[in-house]
Amino acid sequence: MPELKGWKELPIGGIIVEPGNAKQYKTGTWRVLRPVYQPENCIHCMQCWLYCPDQAIVVEIVDGKPKMKGYNYYYCKGCGLCANVCPRSIDPKTKQPAPEEKRAIIMRPETDFAEE
Amino acid sequence: MPTKQALTGAEAIAYAMKQINPDVVAAYPITPQTPVVEYFAKYVADGVVDTEMIPVESEHSAMSACVGAAAAGARAFTATAAVGLALMHEIVYIAASLRLPIVMAVANRALSGPINIHCDHSDAMAERDSGWIQLWAENVQEAYDFTVMAYRIGEHPDVRLPVMINFDGFIISHGVEVLETLDDDVVKNFVGKPIKMYSLLDTDHPVTYGPLDLYDYYFEHKRQQIEAMKHVPRVFKQVAEEFAKISGRKYDLVEEYMTDDAEYIMIALGSTAGTIKHTIKELRAEGKKVGLVKPWVFRPFPKFELQRILNGRKGVIVLDRSASFGAEAPLYEAVKSALYEVAVRPQLGSYVYGLGGRDITPAHIRQAFEDAFKGYLIADEERYLGLRE
User: Fold this and answer.
1) What residue stretches are annotated with the Pyruvate:ferredoxin oxidoreductase core domain (chain B) (predicted)?
2) Residue B113, preceding peptide bond in cis (omega within 30° of 0)
3) Coil, helix or strand for B225?
4) Predicted confidence band at A115 (pLDDT cuts at 50, 70, 90)?
């Protein structure tokens, strides 16, 4: 959390005088579960990017094609939508949930990363 | 050259607003305020002013339109009364919280129910903690003068708060009195150009009004409002001093009438102060040492002035034109609280009078004074003037 300002330093009436400052608003602090990217299983289908309700999926264009590069946890709220739509979450043969080591995205409790 | 005119209070306020020529007036009719905006609408229709007149569908919208206009940097005005003010309540707080120097005339009237359209102060008292500056006029002249002064007080960079001009419904709003009006250019020069801060129309410095303000900053913004109110007495006195130069009429936070040697002092807001002055003259002729203190400014409450004036007097009688159910009447409560710290506390008495337009006569006022002369004032007892037992 940034240092909060005292009443003498703030513009009156709650008026926001700096345009576009929502950029500074860290929206990833609500997260309870964290998506973890396992690039070795990713097929770069971009479903996660398409469904992400925020700007949490980092994409890079390589040879004219988009490549999933992991997460921007500054924005990610841990909704798990990406893991849910990821085609690698389902075993294509059994149509059952794939084992974790085969998935491209797994959801982990945020508490596992507490020391970071 | 000041001119003498015979006008109603409503007409006098509309006349002052004509001279100020505000940018926006939003209005919804409600008795007894309606003639204020009716007279003003005529000025707009006749092209005497270039104000944008917005006839809205409710008082809630009238205040909302004023908030929008004031946030854009415009001078905004509206007038209301009673249940109209109550319907505005939500936006009344927002106007003060967003620090918008709107001016609103309130023709004080009883709040329902049962339905009553007559004079009473319960409408304004319901808004006393909304963060508005409250000025209280005794007569048509004061209603006019406060209207001329209001924007100067509210727009001051140390204040930035809306101003409510209270004038008793029907008694002042519809009663015709002779008053002295100032020349148009004198008022125009006095009021000057609006002092704009954080204007929405200033596209070089874009701002956002009214964002979500939770536990991390809301408290700090309320503290700023508290601070703004602390600057009001100084700013009011400055503006009043300048106003005295153009009008010859000197205002302060409170008016003192025959208080120099007074042993017994009565305190009241609004038009009843005139009846009290009349009664005081009669009692003085009988050798009674009596006086009146009339708060011209009720919010911020002139605590230090009252402490200075009332310390060591024999008796203080507070008259309230509104009740606070289950507690002491609002003006009395504030006076009593102020006197906690004075060196020599006077005897205190609370009298509620005139609810719903009930007449208050010199005989009633004399009755309260006589209780005081007999030493029969009890701080914890609320009494009633003009009530049938």
Assistant:
1) 262-365
2) yes
3) helix
4) low
Interface test with B, best of A12, A16, A21 (most B CBs within 10 A): A12
Helices (H) and strands (E) in chain B, counts: 12, 15
- Residues A92 and A88: their CA atoms lie apart, in Å, by 8
Eight-state DSSP code of residue B16:
H
Which residue has tokens 């001016």? B103
Q: Which residue among A4, A5, A16 places its CB closest to the CB of B211?
A: A16
**Per-residue confidence (pLDDT) for residue B272, from 0 to 100:** 98
User: Contact B53/B62 with Cβ under 8 angstroms?
Assistant: no
With contacts defined as CB-CB under 8 Å, which chain A residues touch B219? 7
What average pLDDT does this structure show over B162-166?
98
Residue B260 neighbours by CB distance under 10 Å? 7
Interchain contact, B213 vs A4, CB within 8 Å:
no
Question: How far A87 CA lies from chain B's nearest CA (Å)?
Answer: 39
| Interface confidence (ipTM) of the complex | 0.86
Dihedral angle over CA of B248, B249, B253, B255, nearest 10: 130
To probe the interface with A, which of B67, B158, B216, B220 has the most A CB atoms within 10 Å? Answer: B220
Determine how β-strand B3-8 pairs with β-strand A105-109. Answer: unpaired
The reported pLDDT for the residue numbered A29 is 80
Q: Which residue of A has its CA nearest to B97?
A: A13
Question: Across the interface, do B217 and A10 touch by the CB < 8 Å criterion?
Answer: yes
- Closest chain B C-alpha to A39 CA, distance in angstroms: 39
Domains with residue ranges and CATH for chain B: 3-247 (3.40.50.970), 254-385 (3.40.50.920)
d(CA B376, CA B368) in angstroms, rounded, equals 9
* Residue A8 to chain B, least CA–CA distance (Å): 7
Specify the pTM. 0.88
Residue B217 distance to chain A (closest CA, Å): 8
CA distance A13 to chain B (A): 4
Per-residue model confidence as pLDDT tens digits over B213-234: 999 999 999 999 999 999 999 9
Q: Which residues contact B35 (CB under 8 A, 6 or more apart)?
A: B8, B10, B11, B14, B173, B174
Chain A to chain B Cβ contacts (< 8 Å): 54
All residues of chain A having their beta carbon less than 8 Å from the beta carbon of residue B198 are 11-13, 15, 17
Residue by residue, what is the 3-state secondary structure of B107-126? EECCCCCCCCCCCCCHHHHC
Q: Identify the band that residue A28 occupies on the pLDDT scale cut at 50, 70 and 90.
A: confident
| B169-190 per-position pLDDT tens digit | 999 999 999 999 999 999 999 9
- What class, spelled out in words, does domain A28-112 have in CATH? alpha beta
